[in-house]
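Minimal example, chain plus zinc ion.
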Amino acid sequence: MAEKAKACPECHQVFDIPKKPGWWLKSNNEITAKNKKELANVAFSTVNGREPTDDERKAWNKENKDDIEKEKVDPPRCPDHPDTNPSNDWQGFTILLNPSRSEVARALGIEEPGSYALKVRHQ
Ligand SMILES: [Zn+2]
């Protein structure tokens, strides 16, 4: 399930939540999993058409250890307010294409085009 995007309480910018961290194969970007064990299962069964036994999985892990990598996902940060935690308690998603001509942008003090939330609460 996708997480709700977060918004900066200072400037109201809305940021998409990147996908969750997980494991993946460098040699095959299609193969991803939420943990290392599952990655081995998925990769093994893609090749062999069945799930590996414990021994086979251990062998596979050893063989492919340089190909396995943990995908890191940094939580979203506002580039303008890196010390402020983006909040997921917000309302009123708005895309401002032309802030200089928008009443909403003026009210919120927004100068840059982008995605904004009308109301953001600090968390
Ligand atoms: Zn901000």
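The mean pLDDT is 91. The radius of gyration is 21 Å.
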